[in-house]
Amino acid sequence: MDNDSSVSNDPQVSKKLVSDYLRAFVSADYERLTELVSEDFVISWRYNVSGKVGREAARRIEGRDAYLAYARDGLTTVRYSYDDPVIRPVADGSSVYVETMATLLLPFDPQEAPEIEYHNEFVYRFDIRDGQLTQQIGWHNPVAAMVFHTDRDLPTKDEIRALGEPGQWQG
Fold first, then answer.
1. Which end of the chain, N or C, is less packed with Cβ atoms under 10 Å?
2. 37-94 confidence digits (pLDDT tens)
3. Alpha-carbon span 130 to 133, nearest angstrom
4. What is d(CA 60, CA 75) in angstroms, rounded to the nearest whole number?
5. Residues 82, 147: Cα–Cα separation, whole Å
């Protein structure tokens, strides 16, 4: 989904829109999220656990209702915080980039074991049309995610060498 480049947005208004979105997301303010994202909102992450890359491999959620269902599900089990996000709109305000260190606390159930902290650095691009967010694309460090989600240390040099040359790797 691309913005109509003939329409210019005020960069400071776009920056505030993204800041409001991040605040609404971490506070699980679904009413405000509904106001901020367009009906055709798309969120995608440019990574894939299979190791495949490219737009075709990206995980995508399309449409406001599907996004809000995803947010409701995720925010009931995980708490997010963004540490001093750097928010940079492009000159015409049609897109905004965010760089931030995020902390995710899992699980969010006080009956469970102590919460586990997951830290990763994220970069997001938000596209804007008619005063609403139309798209969010996210990138993060996949190695940090792999280590956290698999509860495994990074492979040693010997383990990597044991794999052989990349052409010999078994999938």
1. C
2. 999 999 988 776 556 666 665 678 999 999 999 888 877 777 788 888 999 999 999 9
3. 8
4. 18
5. 20
